[in-house]
Amino acid sequence: MRILFMGTPDFAVASLKRLVEDGHQLCGVFTQPDKPKNRGHKLTPSPVKEYALSQGLEVYQPLKMRDGEAFSIVEKLAPELIVVAAYGKILPEDILNYPKYGSINVHSSLLPKYRGAAPINWAILDGEEETGVSIMYMAKELDAGDVILQKTTPIGPREDALALTMRLAELGAEALSETVTALQNGSAARIPQDESMMTYASMLTKEMSPVDWTRSAHAISCQIRGLIPWPCATTTVVSDEPMKLYAAEETGADTSAQPGTIVAAGKAGIDIACGDGKVLRLTEIQAQGGKRMTAAAYLLGHPIQL
After folding, report:
1. Interior CA angle at 162 toward 62 and 202, to 5°?
2. CB 217 within 8 A of CB 252
3. Angstrom distance (rounded) from CA 75 to CA 89
């Protein structure tokens, strides 16, 4: 099939790679413009652009989607299908409706739950035990199109958003491959979403970072895992300056200490009392101005007197 792909981050690379491996004709790739990074502000291509160029694919990086330029490119490329995976731009209806087989999206949640910008993070933040991917027809409303195919997967008790993103990227690529085959042979489903079940996954903010130790150990664990790699959960319990938290364990141990009290600190990590009378063990942290390290390594230079 002649396909125009649109995507930007690492999550999207798996889907593009699968389309190439399946032998489809990739007539072009849309991705976000190169962005300045690090201190030198050197313009850096997106992961999708890097992979596309490595495969000799034509890359397009329109600044806007509604000024006619993007549509003229789509007309020139004449795709039979548009596939979108975390592109980061909203497509106007003239582009959505152009291809013979329509425009489909690889979305990292079990729609209609977690429409929006950060579905993977919010599934973990909310303590969900499973999530998945949905391949849907794109519609004018955000993530509201009819679903073609879904695949589910459990969320590991210690799995953070970055690790889950990598798994869902591969699951999404698998679902996309099956969907394109179904579109070609005319067997693709078209299941309307149940609007009464809809939830929204808003963008993450730094205001979500500070840990409230009066919450349960499980809720705080979900917060830490769900805010990886940005903005990260933070606390001032261990030091006066906010410290980023990268990993923690629910020990299951009971404590009568006040929430936010350090009850133990050693090679296993830093144990802190939570609001449900349980202990959460910090195992990987980053002090302000320092490097990410194990809590045990941090304690070697910053011993805690209990």
Report:
1. 65
2. no
3. 18
Confidence at residue 159, expressed as pLDDT on a 0 to 100 scale: 98
Based on DSSP, count helices (H) and strands (E) in the chain, helices before strands. 8, 17
Report the distance separating Cα 14 and Cα 228, nearest Å.
20
Determine the average pLDDT of the residues in 176-186.
Answer: 97
Pairing of strands 233-235, 2-7: unpaired
Please name the helix (run of DSSP H) or strand (run of DSSP E) that holds residue 199, with its range, or none: none
Q: What is the pTM of this model?
A: 0.95
Look up residue 269 and give its amino acid: G
Per the CB < 8 A criterion, the answer to whether 167 and 131 are in contact is no
Q: Is residue 211 within 8 Å of 220, Cβ to Cβ?
A: yes
pLDDT attached to residue 42: 85
Cβ proximity of 161 and 226 under 8 Å: yes
Domains and CATH numbers, the chain: 2-201 (3.40.50.170), 206-301 (3.10.25.10)
* 43 compared with 167, residue with greater pLDDT: 167
**Cα–Cα distance for residue pair 16/176, rounded to 1 Å:** 10
Is the Cβ–Cβ distance between 150 and 134 less than 8 Å?
A: yes
pLDDT tens digits, residue range 188-225? 999 999 999 999 999 999 999 999 999 999 999 999 99
Q: Which tokens is 109 given?
A: 């949640």
